[in-house]
Amino acid sequence: MENGYVPVIDISSRIDTGKRAELARTIGAACERSGFFVIVGHGVPSDLVDRMYTVTNAFFTLPESEKNAVASRPGTSGFRSSGESTARSLDRETPPDLCESFGVHVTGELDEAERAGLGDYWATWKLANLWPEVPAGFKRTWQEYMETMTTLSADLMRLSALALGHDEHHFDNRFDRHVSSLVANYYYPQLTAPLPGQLRRGAHTDFGGLTVLYQEDNLGGLQVMAGEDEWRDVRAIPGSFVVNIGDLMSLWTGGRWVSTMHRVVNPERGNTSSRLSIPFFYQPNHDAPSDGSITAGEWMTEKMRKLFAAR
């Protein structure tokens, strides 16, 4: 089934050993064409998704002073109010994205010495997680969701290996110490007109292995590039996740699979609704290979330095 340019794939058959190869071929075809697909039949409990949405939306609607109590600062990762421009990761200068975010990392609960060993350079996965005390259950829900996304992503990576003609455990040793992150993007109501070229999220590609995204139902905005200059909508489908491959996966396939530009466009003028999306970025071990010249961690860090304007 098509969702515009992006196919919808029921992955419930992944639990059947005899059907995994056929499912993998379907995923592989999507990754060659657009690098994007939507999954249903994924087995992620709807209750968990509902709880994740509820606590996350509640956080972003807190007073600014309460959100700023867990604002990212040197050595930590948490709330970011503004200033990021995703287009900078591709060396494109645009106004800041019209978005607030909150982000943590699977490595953010390690002690300082362990985090320091994750590369001898600045990196987001070396930051300690900051957690809000309000709303209640925020940290517990996010950690449960992160564990669930890790399990799902690991199996999607195994299916990807099959699709590429490898043993399904081909990529396991690139993700056995993964540095993945979970981010919530809150696209707040637009009460004033955006600046020229300013979007909710500017055009970019993702950096790592793959991304598994929950986007709020019935609110559009996500678009992917088809060909050289055509943008296609990715409609939100209830109970689904949007999956796309990142730059490293494209490099590992020699460009056979495409890491596709995507963006989040502004609502029509006068539409003052907010929108929430929650991507899980499945990032490989920091010392996994990239293109043979630098490590995966060095590749991702260079992109993130531009994104955050980090020095």
Give a quick rundown of the structure:
The protein is α+β, with helices and mostly antiparallel strands. The chain contains eight helices and 15 strands. The termini are far apart.
Description:
28% of the residues lie in helices and 21% in strands. The protein has a nine-stranded mixed β-sheet. Strands 9-14-11-12 form a four-stranded antiparallel β-sheet, with no helix packed on it. A two-stranded parallel sheet has the order 4-7. It has a single domain (2-308), classed as B-lactam Antibiotic, Isopenicillin N Synthase, Chain (Jelly Rolls, Sandwich). It is an alpha+beta fold. The longest helix is centred in the middle third of the chain and has 26 residues, at 138-163.
Topology:
Blueprint: E1 2-3, E2 6-10, H1 20-33, E3 36-40, H2 46-60, H3 64-68, E4 76-77, E5 79-80, E6 100-105, H4 112-116, E7 128-129, H5 138-163, H6 172-175, E8 181-187, E9 201-204, E10 210-215, E11 222-226, E12 230-233, E13 241-245, H7 247-252, E14 262-264, E15 275-282, H8 296-308
Helix pairs in contact: 1-5, 2-5
Q: Sheet with the most strands?
A: 9 strands, mixed
Number of strands: 15
For this structure, the CATH topology is: Jelly Rolls
Query: How large, in whole angstroms, is the Cα Rg?
Result: 18 Å
Keywords:
four-stranded antiparallel sheet, Jelly Rolls, single chain, 28% helix, 311 residues, nine-stranded mixed sheet, alpha+beta
